[in-house]
Structures are given as structure tokens and as C-alpha cells.
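Bench notes, bay 3.
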Amino acid sequence: MNSPTDSPELPRSVGPEDGTPMRGLAVLHPLNQPVEFMRFCPHCQEETRFIAQIEMLNGLWGCCANCGDERVVPYTRTMEAA
């Protein structure tokens, strides 16, 4: 920072190789090919196509193909070690 109007550099975070920041998310595995399925979108108030782009520990991260709302869709079936 050279002057009071300069912004400090943002800390690096986990994200895709293209440099798009994704703060606060633990990326398990970027999907080589997006996974698409139908899902109810709370913003569109209808069932729309959901495009998952990243596999997370608790679900798939992606967006609504209609409105672009981004969210993590949690897995519905999980296994726990006994």
C-alpha cells in the first residue's frame, strides 16, 4: 500500500485454476465435465436445470441454469464409519 486510497491485496483462497476466488469453501474436486440435473430453484420458484461444477465434502456446488443462483446442493445419501 502506497497511499490511504490503495486497497490491500486480498488473501489468496482456494479456487479454480483460472484465478476465480472462492472464499470459505473447501474444494474437494473440480468436475472435469459439469453434472446437470433437475432441481427446485427457490429464486425461480420452479424446477429448473442445475449445473454442478465442483464436488465438495457435503455436496455439489453449482448454479441454476435459468437465473444463475449459486449454491451447494447437499448429498442426500451419505455413509458414516462405525
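Next record in the batch:
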Amino acid sequence: MQFIDHVIIIPGLGNNVPFHIWATNSWKKYGIIPHVFDTRWKTEEKGFSEKLERAIKLIDSVSGKNSKISLVGNSAGSSFALNLFGERKNKISRVIINCGRVRDGDWPWFTFNQATALSPSFKESVLNAQELEKNFTSGDRKKMLTLRPLFDEVVPPSTVPIQGATNKITPFVEHGLCIALNMTLFKKQIIDFILAS
């Protein structure tokens, strides 16, 4: 059976939707249909739950017997991707964490509270993902790929890897640059992981 690969991309706190649309446009040549989810991190709506509900509706709208759905969470979008996976495990084939924290943790110069100060929804997303992770099965974890740079000045390295997942360190430094390179020039590692499902 020929599957249609849908990929939902979840931006970080900057919520740069136009960049993410541009960055993933070339993914179409691999048979992937990208959908960029506008998280609106700094617009609280009715809180984290409303953002999650909008994303669940997107998943449900593209799911079908011939569809495969993967999630790519960039930076703050990473914990959101795990929360979505927790809500729709039966519909999600792959989860990619691209330079994003999925649990609490500090740098000496940049604490978790500082990182989440502008978005209570982001803080809730991380803390919820941290709890969800405890209940992931080995099968769940095999569906996950985490990517982090040699050095990330924003996200502490201990907050990214997931035990039992495929965890990779990419040969770059700097948070934003690594995210962009993983989505564009070095996108094949993400593409191959998605298509292998």
C-alpha cells in the first residue's frame, strides 16, 4: 500500500511560520507533505490545552488509512511534539526532536524559568512532556529521533536526549543555526528517519 507522508512541523518560541514553510518546501520532492502548525506560544489563548487541541484537530484532519503522520518539533516545539504524540500515539509514526528541551534543566547562565518566562504555555508543555516520557514504552521510544548540536547556548544538553530513542549530536554549534541546518542543508537525516517508518 502506498502511504501519504504528512509531517507536522512545530516551531519554537519565535514562531517563525514563514521560515518553516520555506525550509520544508523542498521536502515535497521526497513525497512528504509538510504542515506548519502555528503554535502562537506567546498568545496564551486559553492556555496550553487550547493550543494542544488545535494541533490534535490538525492531526485528525490529515489522518486516514493511507496516511502516515510524523511530528518535527523545533526548539520549544519539541516538548509540544511529545505531548501531541501522547495524545495520538496510534496515529503518529515518527517524532523528531530538533534542538529542543523535553524536560526541566538549567544552564548556569540561563535557567528553565528564564527560558519559559515569556510563555507559560511553553513551561506547561515541558513539564507535561517530562511526565509523559516516564510512561513511554520501548516501542514508543524507537519512533523518536533527537538532534542536538555540539554546543547549544540555549538548551542544556541533558534536556534533549530520550532514553531508548535514536539520539544524535550534529557537528554544529549555536541553537538557531543548528535548527536551520537540520531543516535545510542536512535535512536528509530527518527525511530518512521519517520515510523509514
